[in-house]
C-alpha cells in the first residue's frame, strides 16, 4: 500500500511483520468491512503501510486486539435495516462464543436474575475502546460465475445480515433458490468462484477479486441503507480523539436483581439531560434471564454532563465497562431540538460555578467566563 498522510503517531504497538501495525477485519477480501477499513486509511486513522489481516468473524478481529496480536480491528456495529451486529456487541463486552466472559476478566457478570456483585465487566488490562466510526452505504451485486443465467441459480449464499437486506429481491427474481449462510459477503463470493454455490449477494468489488460476473447490481430492498463500522483499539491508541462537540460514548453494564433496576440506572442519564441514542440488551450466557445492557450516549466523556451520567451508572449498576468516546461520522447535533446525531449535552459551567461559589464564597476565581453568584447565592447572568 502507498504511504499516506498518517503520522508516525498513528502507528501502534507494531505486532506485525517488518514493524508494520496490524489491523484485523472480517474477510476475505471484497467485504463491506474492507471498504470501511480503506475509508479509515483515507482519513488518516490507519497508517497506509498497515498490514490488513482478514479474519473469519468480528469476534476474532476484536479478540486479536485484546490479545495483542493486532493493533486495531475494523468491525461492523449496526445496520440501518437489520439493526445491531450482535457478534460485535458481545465481543466488545468480552463475551466468548463458549459462554461467559473472556479476555482475562474472570467469570460472567451479574445481571438481572443473578445475585451478588461481580466486576467481570469492570475495565481492566486487555480492554478495548471504540476509536472512530464511518458509515458505509450498502448495496449489493448478485454475482455468478461467467455464463450463469438467472434460470441456472439453485443456491444463493451471503451473510445472514445481508440476506435480510435483499430477501425481497431474491424472492422476486430468484424464487426457489436455496439460501446458504456465509461467514461474510466476501466469503460468499469466494464460494461461488469455487463452485460451492450458484450466486452470491456481495459488494460489486468482489466480482473483480474472484473473477465473477454481476447478474444484477444495486440490489437492496431498502434504498439508502447504511452500515456503521467502528475502528477498535486499545486504550490510549493514537487514533483516539478528544472531544469534538459531535461525539458518541458507549458503555455496557449489568444490573442488580431488584425491581426497577434498569429504570433507576437510566434515570441517571435522563436526569442530567444527556441524550441516549441507543440501548440493546444481550444475554450474559450464564443463565436464563440474565442480560447485559449496551447504551450509547450523545456526547464525550470529557463533557461534564456525560461524565456525571457515567458516574451515576457506576453507582447504580453491578458492573459497567466503558467502551469509548469517539467522533460521530454523520448526522448533525443541536443544542435544543436535536438532529439526526442527537442533542449535545448541557453545559454545566454556570451550575458548577454556582456550587463552587457556595462552597468557597462569591466571586471565587475571578477572570473566568463563568458567571459568579451574589451574596444571596443567586447566579449572576
UniProtKB/TrEMBL annotation:
It holds the Pfam family PDT. Residues 1-10 have a biased composition (Polar residues). One of its GO terms (molecular function) is prephenate dehydratase activity. Coiled coil: none annotated. Its EC number is 4.2.1.51. Residues 1-23, 328-381 are annotated as: Disordered. Residues 250-327 form the ACT domain. Pathway: Amino-acid biosynthesis; L-phenylalanine biosynthesis; phenylpyruvate from prephenate: step 1/1. It is an enzyme of class 4 (lyase). The record marks 227 as: Essential for prephenate dehydratase activity. This is Prephenate dehydratase. It comes from Corynebacterium bovis. The gene is pheA.
Amino acid at each position: 500500500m502507498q504511504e499516506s498522510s498518517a503520522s508516525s503517531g498513528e502507528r501502534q504497538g507494531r505486532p506485525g511483520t517488518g514493524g508494520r501495525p496490524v489491523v484485523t477485519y472480517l474477510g476475505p477480501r471484497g467485504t463491506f468491512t474492507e471498504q470501511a477499513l480503506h475509508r479509515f486509511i483515507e482519513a488518516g486513522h490507519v497508517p497506509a503501510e498497515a498490514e490488513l489481516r482478514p479474519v473469519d468473524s468480528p469476534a476474532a478481529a476484536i479478540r486479536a486486539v485484546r490479545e495483542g496480536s493486532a493493533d486495531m480491528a475494523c468491525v461492523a456495529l449496526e445496520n440501518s435495516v437489520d439493526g445491531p451486529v450482535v457478534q460485535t456487541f458481545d465481543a466488545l463486552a468480552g463475551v466468548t462464543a463458549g459462554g461467559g466472559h473472556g479476555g482475562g476478566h474472570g467469570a460472567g457478570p451479574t445481571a438481572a436474575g443473578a445475585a451478588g456483585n461481580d466486576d467481570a465487566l469492570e475495565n481492566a488490562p486487555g480492554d478495548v475502546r471504540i476509536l472512530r466510526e464511518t458509515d458505509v452505504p450498502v448495496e449489493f451485486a448478485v454475482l455468478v460465475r461467467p455464463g450463469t443465467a438467472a434460470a441456472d441459480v439453485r443456491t444463493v449464499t451471503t451473510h445472514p445480515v445481508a440476506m435480510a437486506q435483499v430477501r425481497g429481491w431474491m424472492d422476486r427474481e430468484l424464487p426457489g433458490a436455496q439460501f446458504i449462510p456465509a461467514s461474510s459477503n466476501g466469503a460468499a463470493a469466494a464460494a461461488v468462484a469455487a463452485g460451492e454455490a450458484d450466486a452470491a449477494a456481495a459488494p460489486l468489488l468482489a466480482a473483480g477479486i474472484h473473477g465473477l460476473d454481476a447478474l444484477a447490481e444495486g440490489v437492496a430492498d431498502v434504498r439508502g441503507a447504511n452500515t456503521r463500522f467502528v475502528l477498535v483499539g486499545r486504550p490510549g491508541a493514537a487514533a483516539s480523539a478528544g472531544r469534538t462537540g459531535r461525539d458518541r460514548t458507549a458503555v455496557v453494564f449489568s444490573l442488580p436483581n431488584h425491581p426497577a433496576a434498569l429504570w433507576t440506572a437510566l434515570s441517571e442519564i435522563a436526569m442530567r439531560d444527556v441524550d441516549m441514542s441507543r440501548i440493546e440488551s444481550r444475554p450474559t450466557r450464564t443463565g436464563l434471564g440474565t442480560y447485559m445492557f449496551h447504551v450509547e450516549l450523545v456526547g464525550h466523556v470529557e463533557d461534564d454532563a456525560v461524565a456525571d451520567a457515567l458516574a451515576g451508572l457506576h453507582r447504580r449498576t453491578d458492573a459497567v465497562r466503558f467502551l469509548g468516546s469517539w467522533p460521530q461520522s454523520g448526522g448533525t447535533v443541536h443544542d435544543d431540538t436535536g438532529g439526526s446525531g442527537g442533542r449535545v449535552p448541557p453545559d454545566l459551567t454556570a451550575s458548577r460555578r454556582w456550587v463552587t461559589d457556595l462552597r468557597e464564597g462569591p466571586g471565587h476565581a475571578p477572570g473566568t467566563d463563568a458567571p459568579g453568584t451574589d451574596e444571596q447565592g443567586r447566579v449572576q447572568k
